[in-house]
Design a protein that fits this description.
Number of strands: 6
Radius of gyration: 15 Å
Number of helices: 4
Strand content: 35-45%
Oligomer: single chain
Helix content: 25-40%
Number of domains: 1
Length: 140
């Protein structure tokens, strides 16, 4: 068995902190884990107001503050199926479930989140999910 590198320890500890802050719906706290300049991408249609590219730390909090009110409070769930850490990269395999506030539709989707660390901060976050399913859930 090999010992994890220092980079893997940093990546793993940042990832743990990120998951804790997002789980507590601490948008500002989550954003503090990111560098000033970032590569953030969540694919999706125009029906998904939080989809798209973001390039600044402050955009991280905006992302969550735009997304969270879309769903009925207390009717969301997230489970982590597996985490893979390799050096500066981490991938989270997860499942999200939400009830859309405006129409009551239930959204269940598997996701993969790829995060990259540089200099002790996240510099990249790309999320992969069923974008068609999200589009349909948010459409009237």
């Amino acid at each position: 068995m090999t010992n994890p590198t220092s980079n893997e320890h940093t990546t793993e500890s940042l990832l743990t902190e990120f998951l804790e802050r997002v789980g507590a719906q601490d948008a500002k706290g989550a954003s503090e884990l990111f560098a000033g300049e970032i590569d953030w991408f969540v694919p999706g249609s125009d029906a998904v107001p939080w989809a798209g590219h973001r390039t600044k730390r402050e955009h991280v909090a905006e992302y969550f503050q735009t997304m969270w009110p879309t769903f009925v409070p207390g009717e969301s769930s997230a489970s982590v199926d597996k985490v893979v850490v390799s050096g500066d990269d981490a991938v989270i395999f997860s499942r999200f479930g939400h009830t859309v506030a405006k129409n009551g539709k239930r959204l269940e989707t598997a996701v993969a989140i790829h995060l990259t660390v540089a200099n002790g901060e996240f510099v990249r976050m790309h999320l992969y999910e069923d974008t068609l399913g999200v589009h349909h859930a948010l459409s009237d």
